[in-house]
Amino acid sequence: MKSIPLLTAAALLFSYTPAPSLAAAASPMLQCPPAPPPPPPPPGGGGSGGSGRPPGAGSTPVGPVSPGPSVPAPASPGPASSPGAGIGPAAGPASSPPPLSAPAPATGSAYSPPSIGTKQNDTLHWSHWWYLESARFLDVRRHIQGPPTPDGRSIVSTAPRAPTRRFVEAEVVPRLIEIAREERSVPMVAAALVSLGRAADAPSELHGSAVEAVHSHLGSSSAQIRESAIIALGLFGTPKCNDTLLALAAGGKRAEQFALTASVSTRTRAFAAHALGLSAVRIDNAHEQQRIALAMIDLLEGDVLGMADLPVAAVSTLGLVTLPERLLVPVEAHRDRDHVDHVLSSRHLAKYLQPILSKKTQQRADRSTTFRAHACVALARAASKTVPAMRANCIGQLVELCSNREEPIHMRTAAAIALGEVASAGEAVEDVDARKMILSLAKRGQPLERRFAWIAAASTMTRPGAGESPLAGAGELKEALTSELAKGRAGELGWAALALGWVEDSIHERGIETPDSAGNALSAMGVKKRNDDDSAALGLGLALATRHTDRAQKTGERLLRELKQTTTPELRGNLLLALGLTEYEGAADVFRKELEGARNQPVLLWSAAIGLGLLGEPVSVDLVRMLGEAKTSEELIGISAALGQVGASNAVRPLLSLLDEDKRPAPMRAAAVEALGAICDLDRMPWRDPIAHALPYFATTATLSTNGLGLLERPW
User: Fold this and answer.
1) Is the pLDDT confidence value at 8 over 80?
2) pLDDT per residue as tens digits for the range 337-348
3) Dihedral of CA 20/23/29/31: which sign?
4) Distance (Å) of CA 196 to CA 152, 215, 423, 665
5) Is the per-residue pLDDT at 157 higher than 80?
6) 127-130: Cβ within 8 A, 24+ apart
7) pTM score
8) What is the band of 1 on the pLDDT scale with cuts at 50, 70, 90?
9) Are the C-beta atoms of residues 623 and 596 closer than 8 Å to each other?
């Protein structure tokens, strides 16, 4: 059975939320949203292995499941290295990472997301980080359904409950298996495969049939279907599915047998390696974790020249495995394997990863800056699970990387992100050193370093440390962030606002009352005339800083006043989400009015649905009614996707009925399939969260982001 991750602040983005490119450069149509993203461009369009014809309004299923050649594995651009100039502000290529690849939507398609204002070519913009991380600050399921239990029951008796596992196994899983086996539409099949991974739990009687249906598509000539099948195997999170993923990741003859093809591309192998990371966070078996880790080390020590995709996927998965803190001898089958000593414990794994961060490793063609950036985060995650001495040693190495001006800026910034994942707010010497370095980068680093350093600083506050004062660093950090807000540096205000809100939220979560200096600072900045981007970040930061306090209602009143004066959809969307975070008592009617008026405005529909859910309202009742009243394909896709965000048991049958309407366009029915998978998923976080969290996305690979088909661009 899938485990439910424990979160500092749980989340909602568990559902159908297709990712636009993190830094879209090709079109003003696809941009990062203020909250959960809007509906996707047509699944299966433009190079997905479909017919090549982008489905628009009135499109029909795109023909056979394998209608065309698979998408070739594009070359990974990797980051541009900076010369590592001295500390100080610097503009231009040295401080701005290259844009990631962007989907190119069909012109005039009824399903293309609207422009919502994010600076597409600016990967320094805070909305990209918020897009990947906002799930961790939301918990709509808790408000609507109560904490889910293994059978899907809810402790909130006044709201629609989550569907029971018995109902899911009897009604939903068989329908998804049928779609996977019999549908001829690429988007429908791809959606059904991922939804099966989310809904067909291992204890289910139909789990074996679901796995079989997924396996049958591993040899599909459609990249969208083939890679969706790989994702599903990772989401199943079972040793049997891992057997397949391990073979695919390794390549060679065994992989060819599973893939039913004469060769397995590097991209397919990288997808399999990432899927093993998704499996690792679901499996509670130390020996299985060792098996995954050992396979990833074998990949890194083998011949993986060419793209950075495979080594990045392997090292990222090493950061997601959980090896025992104390030495554990592997099962007999692995005891004589090469590299087995590296998987005996978390300490051994951290010790293996440390030399990878050395610049000397760049002598190998597969040890690019992109790879080493992701290795920083993997080391931090391994170190956070090991003994204090090794943790301190790893923090020291990351601090040294941050201060080494001979390192490329992407590497220094990734090391700062990693410090945020392993350092704490306590009094230990290594934690004090880490926070000093992070704040030094935040104040005097180049633009990329400064932005992520503020986030890293806030992240340390989620971890109480050792000593008499577990939150010893809180005061200094709040003072530094407040000072940064007062400076109001262009482009950096939003990052500081979100970081300050996160710090206060982390403190209040532990029941600690503090002076309202953060709220006052955010309020003071909000009073001044700001552009929409800054106003949005200030609103979100203020909501985080004051929620769960007696100041939340006052913040809600203020946000409501600003909302009434705002007409731009992107800012309204952010303010609606912020208003929901405050749980303002008088906002229910405002959200319902917004919901009704936003049927053809996906950004506002998303935000209003989430805001209403944060108030504890049974929002899926409203959405189910709207689904029945919808007159256009755009409405149906948007409402189905919103139901995936906040839906409950009452939404399942209407969505199943939508699947039976064969005359509906494939993208519309695919949206309903993905919403079903999201509603029936017991995990509280988006399925991609383990990979997306603390991601150095300025150092991306084609597997993660490419033409709308990267791992992080798939429906969530």
Assistant:
1) no
2) 888 999 999 999
3) positive
4) 17, 12, 37, 21
5) no
6) 127/32, 127/33, 127/34, 127/494, 127/533, 128/22, 128/23, 128/32, 128/697, 129/452, 129/455, 129/495, 129/498, 130/32, 130/34, 130/498, 130/540
7) 0.83
8) very low
9) no
